Structures
1.
Amino acid sequence: MTENGTTTADGARDAAGEALRPHAEVAFAQELAALAAADDRPRPARWRLSPWAVATYLLGGTLADGTVITPKYVGPRRLVEVAVATLATDRALLLLGVPGTAKTWVSEHLAAAVSGDSTLLVQGTAGTPEEAIRYGWNYAQLLAHGPSRDALVPGPVMRAMAEGMTARVEELTRIPADVQDTLITLLSEKTLPIPELGQEVQAVRGFNVIATANDRDRGVNDLSSALRRRFNTVVLPLPATPEEEVDIVARRVEQIGHGLHLPPAPRGMDEIRRVVTVFRELRDGGTADGRTKLKSPSGTLSTAEAISVVTSGLALAAHFGDGVLRPADLAAGLLGAVVRDPAADRVVWQEYLETVVRERDGWQDFYRACREVSG
Amino acid sequence: MNGASGAGPVLLGVRHHGPGSARAVRAALERCAPSAVLIEGPPEADELVPLAAQEDMRPPVALLAHAVDDPGRAAFWPLAAFSPEWVALRWALEHGVPVRFIDLPAAHTLAMTAPESEPGTGPAPETRPGTGRGMEAAAGAAGEGEGGASGASGSGERTDPSGTAPSRTDAPRTDALRVDPLRALAEAAGHGDPERWWEDVIEHRGAGGDRPNGDGPNGDGAGGDGADALAPFAALAEAMAELRAVYGDGGHPHDALREAHMRLRLHAARREFGDRVAVVCGAWHVPALAGRRTVTADRQLLKGLPKVRTALTWVPWTHRRLARRSGYGAGIASPGWYGHLFEAPDRPVERWLTKAARLLRDEDYPVSSAHVIEAVRLAEGLAAVRDRPLPGLAELNDAVRAVMSAGSDVPLALIHDRLVVGDALGRVPEGAPAVPLQRDLDRIRRTLRLTPEAGERQVELDLRKETDTARSHLLHRLRLLDIPWGEPARSRAGTGTFRETWRLRWEPELAVRVAEAGIWGTTVLGAATTKAAADALAATALADVTALAERCLRAALPAALPVVMRALADRAALDADVGHLAHALPALVRAVRYGDVRGTDAAALRAVALGLADRIFVGLPPACTGLDADGAAELRRHLDATHGAVALLAQATEGQAEPVPHRPAGGAAAEPLRERWAAVLGTLAGRDTVPGLLRGRAARLLLDGGRLADGGAERLMAQALSPGNRPTDAAGWIEGFVGGPDGGLLLVHDERLLALVDGWLTGVPDAAFTDVLPLLRRTFAEYDAGARRTLGELVRRGPVGAPDHRGAGSADAAAPGFGPGLDRDRAAAVLPTLHLLLGIPQHGYEEGDPAPGPAPGPGPSGAGRGEGHGSPQDNGGGDGATAGPPAMAVPQTNRRTGAGR
């Protein structure tokens, strides 16, 4: 199962008491230590573990001394191996995926296992300035003593370069394009010039960057091909099986519902399963039984969206309905999630209704509810 | 184990189609320089060996053995450039060393794999053996000669299970067992995946091991590089011997026979060529050949084996066919990759990624040398993480995905198709013996008494007759195979579905076409089935697949239908252009009806057609907005075509007990097809953004179908023609609504509609009139002269339906569209004909005039009428009470004309 970053945070919370959400290297310190002790394979410079041990840390396993390593990422083994091999060959790693595919989670654990520190983090937003990636100035110092290394406030990436650590950039595609470009020189030359001082910071062996991005969102700044070329890309897939996805959705919905003080709805599981089925079928472009192909709508239909559809359905049922989650509560939300492009997606959705939903056993209510809101 | 140590034959155990094995075999042959080379394969092929030396022979090719009397029963031994057997064959030919094939003769293999009842029982009708095979093929993926596939597995060419059809019961289940040795060895070595283990230990070893600058650590240090070319064979033979000690013959009785025969052939070869002969065979057989058995015991074993008359030839093969997913291939998932491993002189990883980069660049992906460098590094890093000696295909694919294609699988699919499997197509020299397809065709031709003639000849086939049906099937199948012996011609008389006309002409080059088509199968039926399935998968346009479905029905290829239907449903689902869908539907519906007529099971077809119709219903309204005149005209054609098709389909569907197989009974949502179509038309007719032409057409179709409530058409027309609308749009509406040859009558008979048109036309502003004129002219030009004249007269008479036309008393009230009063003389003129039509004696009416008041006329005809039905009084009373309807007006006229006479 693809662990959702937020869901697994709960486990970590229990483990480490004080902090609301301790860092991976703290929460799993024991496992990391056991791995380091058992690991006799060659390690790249400044790596805490060998690539093999990093892969084991993420995928789980049992060590020779009997220590059980819990799986952090339950998904294709191949992907983790590619990610680790990428970092080992000194290439920057780009984790792509739609919301809810554990990009951040994987990136944090990779950084924790490789460098023992997952805190060198640049959180990408539309307002991320260049200084957040390179360095800033302590203006009091600057005014008092003029430009000097003392007046320089290094950013996370700069620190990672100097210390040979793994830096993380979250939501790379949300960062404005001109700021993204800062990374290009940095990744290809492995130096960060400081023109104000006539100096530069050279990356030490062991420095690397893990970036995460959502490539299917609208309104993001696409990566330039120059930047993309500097990364090896790993696409994290959505949950592989319907059961996993239903499970994720159900758990998250329950948590959110709890937060919103929504009463638990009877029959909820059936409807959740239905929503997940619809999402998966439209996303995969085919029915679950593999008999009929379908067009896919332009939206991402991520697990996260399925969660929000069900949550809003629950709210409708609780406040305006009889408390039972019914197809009618979900129909409008589904329509909104699927039909992002009013022209093309509407046809996709109606075709789906007419060719698949209409003839499915036990889906008549759902069909009617959807027909009603689709008009 | 008797390896290179001098005495005894050199036993080279290989994995079929392993490039590493192939390299090793070549090295071993170079080193021992044997006096003869014995290869696992049918001994009948010995005489075909020289053909392999010819320039025109290019692997991949296959040895094809087939029973002379039953070409459908065949076995293939595919050989690629990287097959050890092929390498050994070529080495022997290059060095002038004799070659012998030593496996069990195909005559026995074919006889044993066939069901006992079948062997050549005279002139069997061509459908019988063929159909059986065709069904099997249907179960397989793309199964042409399933007979061939099972035959091949019987002869042990495949080393692992491939997903072919479960063939006949006695067809060997060896595949599952045959993989066992590898799996057992791999598991002994602690590997879960036998394929990967073999690749690591043997294939990559061969790739890196033969040359000094091998590309990496050689995992399994089985002896020094090239120091002893025979060491790996010795090691493998030893391992196999251990396995055979445990597993015996692997549970497969045929193996004992085959190995006995191999031993006998080996014995004979040693007598002929001395002890230094080399044997290239599956590693599994090595222990059996090395073991000692007496010649007599082996002969005893082989005594009394069944036998059929067999012919062998070389046929061209392709990499795709070697690939496992082709269904009857050799079970090699990645022939292109193997070929690359075999051909690459060094640095297979770098060369492979360079190839991949070139391919992607040709397809306009921005891939630079820097990408290749990084991909190589990643692949090697991955191999290290995965504890593999060298990057294999899995690592290379991962590297390409991560570095070159930014995580996307699309370029990877391209690489898989073009490189991993590859397009390689073999070639066979001219002199190769005829393919079985030709023989099969000859046989069928004789049965059906169709002689190939160079001159053109026309034949009429009556499909109600069995022979003619078979002929039609044959000709249709041949057309599918691109052997256009017959061309369908237009029937001279009668276009019934049971009659076909063909123009036959046998051109000499058709023989070449037959040879080319031989690649698809050994019988006409099997080949046509495979070809149809392959065509369906390759077709890009929806209409092509629909046409193919129709052809499959005509050619009676039920086995190909599921594949074609699937392709059809898939294309339809993904095709976003309603035009394509609408274009495909009529042909499909025709096919459904055709299937019904011929008694073919068209249920699957019907389900697909219904699905297609639903997609059109959904897609049509959005597609009808924002169109220019041309687009609207095109869609109008589609609208008409769909309308016709829906009517036919509804008819065909209603005939069935259960309309759609998997529709839940009593599903509340399932309205009948016609209702749904009417709803779509209603949407179209009422939507303002739809061009007038289409709105008008939809309204007309609704009207014709009786779906417009009273006055509905009038209301729609009034809306469309209201002054606010652009005149051209309104003219388009008129064209759509009353266009077509029969539109004139509509206007003639419904004065309200005519009045609306008339009123609108007089209101068109002068400036717009010239724009409108061509449209109207086009519309009205289609009517026949009579309708045009009537319309003209009606319009000249001035606005109809005005109050003053109504007043002429109830008896004279005009029918809509007619002038006031009755022109009795003209009405009387039609009476004689009317009498004839109704079969009423003419005088009867004249005498028995039901005028107001009881006036039963005397005379014979009155009596005649009394005998008929009803009493004249009834009629008369009715007439007196109600007035006006034309039917009632007739008798009145009658009276006068009668008097006039």
2.
Amino acid sequence: MLEAYPHNRLARIVLWGFAALVMAFLMLPTLVVVPLSFSASNLLEFPPHAYSLRWYENFFGSATWMAALRTSLILGTLTALIAVPFALLGCISMNRLGGKTAAAIQSVLLTPSITPGILLAIGLFFVLAAQRLVGTLFGVLVGHVVLAVPVACIVLLPALARFDWNQVQAARSLGANWARAIGGIIVPQLQISLLSATLMAFLTSLDESVISIFVASGRNSTMPKLMFVSLRDQIDPTIAAISTLWTAIVVVVVLIVAFRQKS
Amino acid sequence: MTVTVDPALAADARRERRFFLSLSLPALFIVGLAAILPILWIIRQSFLTTGGEYTVGNYAKVLSSGLTWSALVTTLELSLGTLAICILLGTPLALALASARPRVANVLMAFVMLPLWTAILVRTYGWLVLLRRDGLINAALTGSGLTAEPLPLVYNFTGTLIGMVHYMLPLFLLPVYAAMRDIDPNLIRAAASMGATLGQVMRTVIMPLSAGGIFSGSVIVLIYSIGFFITPAVLGGGKVNPLSTRIERTLSTFQDWGSASVLGILLLVLMALIGVMLLAARRLLAQNTVDAPHA
């Protein structure tokens, strides 16, 4: 972009020096927890004097953390399984209707993503309290699905816009009903986008913390809720181990999506 | 010329339209149930006493409390502070990335996106480790003799601001980078061939053409900052209280559902106000861009 200014060495050095500092700022907190998680000491010393796996043992040996891990994985899976089909049908609807109707549906479906989490959380808390559902898995699940629907829509809408609808028309003219057309033509062809949408929905649920903090409790506490509570009380290196594992899993998931999309 | 449509075909088209509408019902239903109903419920709750009778007492109580107004000020300070720092740090970084070769830029973008993929609580924990009194940054500062005493970097406004900028910066960067990538390099070459200095190209070509991206990025930062909860709650250490943490404390500690709802409504009103201002700003921006060639 700036090839036209090859002699402006100083400007280039200043710009890239600044960029490197900002990038270090962005990556620092993610990377700093990795060596700490392997420390043998319960002080947060850096670099650690001796290494061990005791914080990982702590995590896997703790009934509370394991229950939270189980809850989070179940919630993430259910969220993806519900949100992605809902979002797919919604996106087909928007794509076929077009115009003002589609724009209206889209603005409703994207509302949850611009509403502050704290408002969704306390509102949902009131609604669930009236039905005596606070602390149930169902309550958190509803909150996570509503956050995952817009995320899945953002992935699926452009995919459907590129989709060749003549194929569906051909199938319909040959007598296939809509269920057949969606299941037999749209779903197989959108495989990769559907996989991305599923993983994104799963990650949305896994990382969601505000709704969980207000609505989940006891046995149904999620990982973020438990981490939030323990960060407020004391800083335990077990959380460094959890953070490292978590980031590793997310990086793997993101790489899968990235490579799938390329191939 | 008039086109006559076979009534049977028209009925068919209407039926198909209804069918397509029905496809979006499950998604609309869940959004209605878990997002729109809760917001309406907050409005209703704000007019109820603990006993369930209608009152405007909650509003009187919340609006006459000094804590509410200081929360409002803190919310604005945090949001605008975050936005200002994002613009200062993000715009040069976007420019550097946009001027890099595509292959290099893609790799660097993956690193920039790493925090976006790190769970918010993991990042918050990372910042606690770095910023505490005996944390890494203070150890480096006192160790190198730059400061005699450890600096108070966390459990205060500074720590909260650092955490929030860290969360918002990648979100700001994405639209700015996209806008700068789309600038036609020939425009810059043309300006250079006619003797424009790098500073002039910046001011008259690059900045006006990235204004749209910077604006989108700013909207995203403001929308997310206003109701941000986790970072102030953990890195603020109870001393930084924007509306979001006041809502939590009013609800969880004082069990005052009515007042918590009024604070929620305040947050909604604040968002609406900012929305209106942003729309006005966009109109102004669009006018300026149209006027630019004549100036």
